[in-house]
Amino acid sequence: MDNLFIAATERSPEVAFDAAAGTLRIKGESYPEDASQVFGPIFNVLQDYLGQADGNGLKVDFELIYFNSSSAKALMNMFQMLENATDVDIVVNWQFMADDETMKEFGEDFSEDLEHVTFNLVPVS
Amino acid sequence: MSEGTGKGGFSLFDAEERILDGARRLLDRMKDGDPDLLAEVGVLADAYSRSVREQRRLVKVSDRLQNQMTQLNQELARRRAEAEEALEQLRQAQETLVQTEKLASLGALVGGVAHEINTPVGIALSCASHLDDSTKAIRALFEADDVGVDDFERYMDTAADTAKLIVANCERAADLIRSFKQVAVDRTSSERRVFRLADTITETVTSLRPNLRQGGHEIEIACPADLEVDGYPGVISQILTNFVMNSLTHGYADGRRGRLHVEADRGENDHVRLRYRDDGQGISEEYRNRVFDPFFTTRRGSGGSGLGLHIVFNLVTGPLGGSVVLENTPSAGASFLLEFPRVAP
Lengths: 125, 345
Known about the structure:
The structure holds 2 protein chains of 2 kinds. Chain A is α/β, with parallel strands linked by helices. Chain A has a single domain (about 5-125), classed as Transcription Regulator spoIIAA.
């Protein structure tokens, strides 16, 4: 099972996936030219991992400051994928700056369709 | 293409596309069935397909707008940084100019000093030369054994007169040098000390005498001799110099003889009130609000820098921790009132 690390760029977030630990962290800003280029590799490793989790859980930390609409769409797809993996214990921590109402609302929107995934809103300052 | 299938090999609308494919297959399977049912499902599939197209369009438009906004924000930040840098450069340039102006006025002071000392030194020199001549003459008579009582008495008178003049003028020169030295030291060192305000005013006025005498101007000083100030004599000196030079340049340009006044006294709350006024042509109403602005001058062409009163303002509000106003006067002339704490902050 491969790990994945993608350094942040000016317009894309840092991505760190640790297969052994079962953790994924997406951190920074996301308004890339092509959202599928940024999120495609994440989708691939998640798909692999969720397909052969074998009792292991998954923790996903989102530490996003800003994202554009196609990134939002990609995130929605990602949550759908997580929600569909009913045989894996999944915890999502949605971090946002305590004074960023918008980012909090995005988190609430994403969590609405989730039943199987544990979704935590985590305000930070 | 934000929603395209890039190198990552997935479409943002993958799920929607699969459902659309499913719908197409369903319609295909239903094509021989109930035409009404087929039509209704067809309407639903069309509506969904349009909705997905609309979503794609919205995502694309929204991405573009967010992009533009980000670029605008970056541009804004860049412009702002540029503007701030330009402002900082301007401030530095202004600071440099102010310094230059101060040095220039110090240069004028040195010029005045040279001129002022020249007079007593010149008198002393000609007295000494006259005494030398007389001594040679009486020596010649003496060596010829031809000195009369009259000759000797005349020589004694000459020697006494010239010696007295030499001493008086050398003392005068020494006094001048002493007061100029104080002014120059204060002006350049900006050192803080306790000083008698009257002395500083007098010394400064003395250093300005050559400029005043040229136009036949007179200056009157009224200040309690025992008024002591703990602060910056150089600053007071600079302020007075700028006031006087301002009067000479602007107030009496028409060649009139002026009477200038410096009046200082104790004010309330251990403050000093210092009024400077002249009886020149005054400051016209339209300029009154701008006299303290940097680079404001009505004499740009003829060498005015527009910094004189601005420097006064900075010195009064800065080192002295006080205020300066241009007063409304019923009579002609300009009048400035300074108020500052007797002990500088």
